[in-house]
Design brief:
16 helices, two-stranded antiparallel sheet, globular, mainly alpha, Farnesyl Diphosphate Synthase, 2 domains, 3% strand
């Protein structure tokens, strides 16, 4: 389904004032490992992350608000088994990922309304990523000197030092997907258009960066190098795709109020909300899609384990990789429900459900 004209004012007006009813989303992951934080949080992870944010905010003061979000905790939930050096490097990656996105997001960064400048920024980002991951001969002096890029370069130095070329190339490919899909999203927002659900989902898989986060699991969990039976498996790619789908779906629902505050409705709810459909019906459909994606993840995980069962090393790596990807999902959900970034933690009920007046 192609994109269709989107009247932001009409969609915002239709949604504002309605009550968004969300069931306990954690029930879809009841059989997965419990959420836990990395033992290097809060210290030394939080001081390292906060220092990086302050450095960035010195040039872009609006981004200082990200200190309230506690991105160190998000990192700790994503990668609970990372050792101290990897955890601190991954904290810098989280800073880069979130603040880079905010720089071109609606009403957040100074590039939000300027597509051409944002395109130049995206091209520079890909050069930085290539150099950071040890995939090009660019000298640091030829790259952007801003503090956001510096966070990516510092993370990349640690990642590249202990990751094989295929893992570094895979990480770059996922950064490129993220950057490319963010460009699509900005173009849609500036043109006032929204894609149909299928096209939206493909774009969202890139912008939510779930596959990128999964690509860093081997580095975080000490799987260096990752056994080829896992690293090259179509089953691994399949479960990573489900991670991105799950993240995109529940984040879109839980961040809807935040997005409406910026009059930006490029969101799964808007993609599914058609004439005669109620908000409750849309949420029910999204929850069904989350449940389907969780089942598809588990099926791909079983396929991966079966494919690796004759090799003890590969089987152990597969289990660690699968649980690492599960932590990205459950950690993100826990963070979204409790972080000031989304402002819904005070609305969380004892049964895990939410009622949010938009």
């Amino acid at each position: 389904m192609g994109d269709a004209p989107l009247d932001h004012a009409a969609v915002v007006a239709a949604l504002k004032g309605q009550t968004l009813r969300v069931p306990d989303l954690r029930r879809y992951f009841a059989g997965w490992p419990a959420v836990r934080a990395n033992r290097h949080y809060p210290a030394p992870l939080q001081p390292r992350v906060d220092a990086a944010i302050r450095h960035i905010a010195a040039a872009q003061p609006l981004l200082e608000r990200r200190l309230r979000d506690d991105l160190a905790r998000l990192t700790a939930l994503w990668y609970p088994d990372a050792d101290e050096p990897a955890a601190c490097a991954l904290g810098l990656f989280a800073v880069w990922l979130v603040l880079w996105d905010d720089a071109v997001d609606a009403n957040e960064g100074d590039l939000a309304g300027d597509y051409d400048r944002a395109e130049a920024w995206r091209a520079a980002t890909l050069r930085t990523a290539s150099t950071a991951l040890g995939l090009s001969g660019n000298e640091a002096g030829a790259l952007p000197s801003d503090a956001i890029s510096a966070a990516l370069l510092e993370f990349g130095a640690s990642f590249a030092a202990s990751s094989a070329p295929p893992q570094r190339q895979r990480a770059y490919d996922e950064v490129a997907l993220f950057v490319r899909c963010c460009a699509q999203e900005q173009d849609l927002r500036l043109r006032g258009r929204i894609p149909g659900y299928d096209a939206y989902l493909e774009m969202r898989i890139g912008t939510v960066a779930g596959q990128l986060l999964c690509a860093l699991v081997p580095y975080a969990n000490g799987l260096r190098p990752l056994a080829p039976a896992v690293a090259e498996s179509a089953h691994a790619r399949a479960l990573e795709r489900q991670v991105s789908i799950i993240l995109g779906l529940f984040n879109d629902v839980l961040s809807l109020k935040k997005e409406l505050s910026t009059d930006c409705v490029i969101n799964v709810v808007a993609a599914l909300l058609g004439p005669g459909r109620t908000l409750d019906q849309v949420v029910d459909e999204v929850c069904g899609k989350i449940a389907d994606a969780a089942r598809d993840f588990d099926a791909a995980a079983e396929d991966l384990l079966r494919a690796a069962e004759d090799d003890a090393e590969a089987a152990l790596a597969a289990r660690k990789f699968i649980d690492g990807c599960r932590s990205i999902v459950t950690g993100t959900l826990d963070f979204t429900l409790t972080s000031p970034r989304y402002g819904i933690f005070k609305l969380l009920r004892e049964d895990g459900s939410l009622e949010i007046v938009l």
